[in-house]
Write a structure and sequence with these properties.
By secondary structure, the protein is an alpha+beta fold. Helices cover 23% and strands 39% of the residues. The protein contains 5 helices and 10 strands. Strand 2 and strand 3 form a beta hairpin. The longest helix is centred in the middle third of the chain and has 19 residues.
Length: 171
């Protein structure tokens, strides 16, 4: 029933090109999109995604939240989000535990690497801060088969939001 209630989005990008793509790639040091590998053919109303690799990005247009699926630089599908949830990022993006260096390794590292680096970079600190490139928002992706194997539910976590979409699995 949830699949039937999702709206059909009636807009497309001109020539399949996302107008924000250049801006996204110029602002960040790495790609701001999340990569997903789809192994089955998926359908969401009029949108058909064949198996392959896709870059996924949440977007908003005319009051509708949707996920933008891109392949080879072109928009392959615009899939409406059926639920957008505010989450606690600390629970989703857990920081890995950094190993603590033993004292016999920590002291030489501080003396021979960290202190000289601070001395050398101090005169260039202002110009370095001006050229700082942003890191993209944290993201994660989960997928699971639901409805007795008929549907694929994708959860995309981006910063402090969770976007949920639903696909019908084609055989």
């Amino acid at each position: 029933m949830l699949y039937k209630d999702t709206p059909v989005l009636d807009f497309m990008y001109e020539e399949g090109i996302d107008p924000e793509q250049d801006n996204d790639y110029n602002r960040y040091i790495i790609s701001p999109y999340t990569l997903i590998r789809i192994t089955d053919t998926l359908r969401n109303k009029k949108i058909l995604l064949k198996s392959g690799y896709y870059l996924v990005k949440p977007d908003k247009h005319d009051g509708y939240e949707f996920l933008l699926f891109k392949q080879n630089g072109k928009v392959a599908g615009i899939v409406p989000v059926y639920q957008k949830v505010l989450i606690n990022p600390a629970l989703v993006y857990k920081e890995p535990i950094k190993p603590k260096l033993p004292l016999y390794k920590a002291i030489p590292k501080k003396i021979f690497i960290e202190i000289p680096k601070k001395i050398i970079t101090r005169p260039f600190k202002k110009s370095w801060e001006q050229k700082k490139i942003l890191t993209p928002p944290k993201s994660a992706l989960e997928s699971k088969v639901v409805g007795n194997g008929k549907y694929l539910e994708i959860w995309l976590y981006v910063d402090k939001y969770l976007y949920k979409v639903l696909f019908k699995i084609e055989n």
